Amino acid sequence: MTFTAFYVMIFLIAFALIGGVVMFLSRTIEHGEARFDAEGKMITGHDPASSTTARPARRTEQSDTTGNEQ
Questions:
Q1: Closest Cα partner for 43 from 55, 31, 35?
Q2: 42 DSSP β-pair partners
Q3: What is the residue-level pLDDT of the chain in tens, covering all 70 positions?
Q4: Which terminal Cβ of the chain has fewer Cβ within 10 Å, N or C?
Q5: CA 48, CA 43: separation in Å to the nearest integer?
Q6: Contacts of 42 (CB under 8 A, 6+ apart)
Q7: Which runs of consecutive H residues, i.e. helices, occur in the chain?
């Protein structure tokens, strides 16, 4: 095996090992958004607003929707 091929094999093995460690950590470590209140304490628990059904957006201004521009 040549000198260059040897280092290419080492790089590929290291790349695969690092990828495996990253995949393992991404599946085992809980990640998400940390939320804090006004005093700086972390908010824990369930957000009741996120469990409701989604509502469609409302327009803030009324406009002519018939297409009659004057």
A1: 35
A2: 36
A3: 688 999 999 999 999 999 999 999 989 987 777 778 888 888 877 665 665 677 788 887 766 556 555 5
A4: C
A5: 13
A6: 34, 35, 36
A7: 3-28
